[in-house]
Amino acid sequence: MKLYEFQGKRIFKENGIPIQKGNLLTSAEQTNQIPPPAVLKAQILTGGRGKTGGIRMWDGSLEISKLIHDMFSKKIRGETVAAVLVLEKVEIIREIYLSITFEWEKATPMLIVSSEGGIEIEEIAKINSEKILTIPFDPFMGPTEYQIRYIAKTIYCKNFQELKNIIDAVYKIFKNYDAQLVEINPLVVTPKGMVALDSKIDLDEKSYYKHKQLFESLLKEQRALQGINKDFKPYKLDTISYIPLSGTIGLISDGAGTGMLTLDLIKDAGGEAANFCEMGGITDPEVIYKAMEIVLAKPGIKSLLVVLIGGFNRMDEMAAGIIKYRKEHDLKVPIFIRMCGTFEEVGKRIMNEAGIPTYDDLLEAVNKAVAVIKEE
Amino acid sequence: MSILIDKDTNVLVLAITGRAGALQTRTMIEYGTRVVAGITPGKSGLTVEGIPVYDFVVEAVRDYQIDSAISFVPPRFAKDSCFEVIDNGIKFLVITAEGIPDHDAVDIISYAKLKGTRILGPGSAGIIAPGKSKLGAHPSRVFLEGHVGIVSKSGALSYEVGKTLTDAGIGQSTVVAIGGGPIWGLTQREIIKLYQEDKETNEIVLLGEIGGRMEEEAAKFISCYVDKPVVSLIVGRSAPKGKSLGHASAIIEGDKGTVQSKVEALSKAGSYIARTPTEIVQIIEQIRGK
């Protein structure tokens, strides 16, 4: 779950990271309390606001209410502006980039630091990747003193303790909130010390059960600002992942890898999948029932291909789900099922008795499903 | 030899009394896996398929020599139960749960490294040494004892390719599914290293997918250290950009993580490239001079 800048900064403040004085306006009618010169920042969840009119300076010569009204009235990067943050201007000596995230494939947390902040890290990487320092650290100890001393040297920071306090706070937020990313860009050096001018925090939705209250209050706050007041289910509870595509062959698989393989095989056979739908590891008959509902709801589907090679997924339960769906719905398209795996004898018998053929060979099932389209 | 497990591996099952745990204990025993004990806190004294259940790992290791463990513990209790396995000196642990919070997964893997336990997963469908033993839910009839070592992210894809090879009469030394990520204990690179060292493995099959850089890392290793033939299949050729396909990390962002970049890296490293499971069979037959 991505947080708005103001939400992230609230967490920064609670954890002792210095931020600018500011004032959050949730509508154009609210009165601003910050005197000029100030910075107006549109609150959206997508990055790169600066380039698209999402950040404006206010020197006092224009009426601020007009600027704020302007900001609320347009979409930035396709997103409705949820709020406007008015911040006092600070004197910037230098801009630094600082974040903690995971180095995913090495299964370790890491610090990313650059002496050249203020632009997106991807941009810094393009211009001058040597300016970026990545430091993996132990998840139990957090960043060590020597690592922070090394960072201080690399980014020309003279006040070690001040930098350490900020890095320690970023690490604490990263760990305690189950964040996937805590980024300060830029962290600026001012005559009065370091200040976080922006915040980017991304929380791990898989940890929802650990922080139920916090996640729900943050999400409710976001939805209220976005004008979504409906009841919400914070996170989907099933394991189905569904992505619509442009073809006409409905596809359901019980694994991501075989799903992707089947997409490729469909294309090789001259067909095009209408979607990618992977059920994940839950074996309930309800899951395949629901997957069929989702996939067949899309208009224009001409055949349905179900690719099952179950380990955890039980074929008897998959068969039960398919039969239940067929009993309750008018199945208008031909269905091709590759069934293989745990309890496949039972599964195949159930399908057989219902008069639905099953295939053992994946290519054969794919070719049959594609042939139906070609015949038309 | 197979890698990581063999016919004499003594196995502990975590959450053995749960739905998945009990069923898979049965299929593992039927396959010949030496399941010696199980854990479910509060259920000591019960048996599952004749296997004794303990409350704590420390109680099980008092009665049995345990080499490996497989966990069916749900995500929210995963970290603590993995720590318990690691603390008791068990050297190989398969974690099947998907959806473990990232920080928990990183903590488990870091702690395991510190204490010398190898982790397969999280989100792993397990490992099978055909004809010998399996830790996981593999449909056993699609595998055949032999000399091809398979490493896959996806469990189902490892079954699929196992099946295609088996149907063609080509057996496997071991088949390993490392999980869909985005965080992994054992990586493709580490499994390939084990296959390179394994006397029973003659050819290595690498099953990769779009997203991330793990296949590129494996390619680097292959080019420097592997002299056995490697056949790679990367799935997701026809995947749309910017969409995560089932596995959290199976996503193409910009030019990164594409099939093309992986195929380039792997073929430069000397790997054969297959576009489909059938092509893997053809390439292996060619290598073997059939």
List the helices and strands and how they pair.
The complex is a heterodimer of chains A (376) and B (290).
Chain A: H1 5-14, E1 22-25, E2 38-42, E3 55-58, H2 64-73, E4 75-76, E5 79-80, E6 84-88, E7 94-103, E8 108-114, H3 121-128, E9 132-136, H4 145-154, H5 160-176, E10 179-190, E11 193-196, E12 200-203, H6 212-225, E13 241-244, E14 249-253, H7 256-268, E15 275-278, H8 285-296, E16 303-310, H9 315-328, E17 335-341, H10 344-353, E18 358-359, H11 362-375
Parallel strand pairs in A: 14-16, 16-17, 17-18
Antiparallel strand pairs in A: 1-6, 2-3, 2-6, 4-5, 7-8, 7-10, 8-9, 10-11, 10-12, 13-15
Chain B: E1 10-14, H1 19-31, E2 34-39, E3 47-48, E4 51-54, H2 57-63, E5 68-71, H3 75-87, E6 92-95, H4 102-115, E7 118-120, E8 126-129, E9 133-136, E10 145-152, H5 155-167, E11 172-177, H6 188-197, E12 203-209, H7 214-225, E13 230-235, H8 259-268, E14 272-274, H9 277-287
Parallel strand pairs in B: 1-2, 1-5, 2-4, 5-6, 6-7, 10-11, 10-12, 12-13, 13-14
Antiparallel strand pairs in B: 3-4, 8-9, 8-11
